[in-house]
TrEMBL record:
GO biological process, one term: glucan catabolic process
Protein name: Transporter
Keywords from the UniProt entry: Signal
Keyword Signal among UniProt keywords: yes
Pfam families: GH16_XgeA (PF26113)
Length: 269
């Protein structure tokens, strides 16, 4: 009896460590994003009305600004575009590292809002065309309501058998203590109910088992945003990379709020 008790405790501990505990491996903030991610000046795989620029161009034009605990990524909001020329200058960043089983926690102050922007999602991909969008149930998960309260945190856990996503708004009293205090060791089993949960029974985990890179990007219209566009209360209609009514071309100032302000990204493995 006496000998059995410590064994039980150990067994309990190791189950936790193997299952849902992770150590901090990457703590990225400010200018560290510039070496951890590559700006990809490539054609938009989703055919948006967008022109992804290089890091040099983005920095020179202050579309990308990285300093202290701030990373700003924004689209151009000054240029009227030739309807037959390239789309609006914007950004597509891809992580230089690939990740297998891991947890990524994003502390985001502001996400892009405005006509034709898709709701910000942290897309993980191994190919240039695959993304996993997130539809979060609360209004404060994205857009104006998210930004009005100073943003919040997004976390995504990719284990061998599931993907879970959490969102906490800035003043959320349920923000897990390990995130709040910046612990190097986290345990997602204490994080409460995720906003999205994809067990391997629901989706093809084989797709996710390969190493993935993180993508942060902003496109306008295109395959995904187009369908939401009219309901955003904007004039014009997104139709693939064309905008009937020419909104993206003609109204640069409508994109002043089309930016990310990211405080940090932490990866745990
Ligand atoms: C670049 O953008 C940052 C963040 O918005 C701003 O604080 C800074 O003043 C801008 N720099 C210039 C030269 O406009
Ligand atoms: C994508 O996954 C394949 C294996 O499925 C791998 O060979 C390739 O290197 C991965 N590409 C990237 C960009 O991680
Ligand atoms: C980023 O690009 C992917 C396709 O590569 C697309 O699915 C997603 O909607 C884009 N995200 C934003 C916020 O524009």
């Amino acid at each position: 009896m006496l000998a059995a008790a410590p064994l039980l405790v150990l067994a309990g501990l190791s189950t936790g460590v193997l299952g849902t505990s992770y150590f901090l491996t990457d703590n990225i903030r400010g200018s560290q994003f510039l070496s951890a991610f590559t700006h990809q000046a490539i054609p938009d795989p989703t055919h948006g009305r967008v022109n992804y620029v290089s890091q040099a161009t983005a920095l020179e034009r202050n579309l990308t600004y990285a300093s202290g605990d701030t990373l700003i990524l924004r689209a151009d909001s000054t240029q009227v575009l030739d309807p037959f020329g390239p789309g609006r200058d914007s950004f597509r960043l891809q992580s230089n590292k690939v990740y297998n089983e891991h947890v990524a926690v994003w502390n985001i102050r502001h996400m892009p809002q405005g006509c034709g922007t898709t709701n910000g999602n942290d897309c993980y991909t191994n190919s240039s065309t695959f993304g996993c969008g997130v539809i979060a149930p609360r209004a404060t998960s994205f857009g104006p309501s998210f930004n009005a309260i100073g943003g919040g945190w997004y976390a995504m856990e990719r284990s061998g058998t599931y993907i879970k996503i959490w969102h906490w708004q800035r003043d959320d009293t349920n923000l897990p203590m390990d995130i709040r205090i910046g612990s190097p060791l986290i345990d997602t089993s204490n994080w409460g109910t995720p906003v999205a949960d994809f067990p391997d029974t629901d989706c093809n985990m084989a797709t996710y088992f390969s190493p993935q890179r993180m993508i942060i990007n902003l496109t306008f219209c295109g395959d995904l945003a187009g369908h939401n566009y009219p309901s955003d209360g904007c004039s014009g209609i997104c139709e693939g990379e064309y905008i009937i009514g020419d909104y993206v071309n003609q109204n640069p100032s409508a994109f002043e709020d089309a930016y990310f302000d990211i405080a940090w990204l932490k990866i745990y493995q």
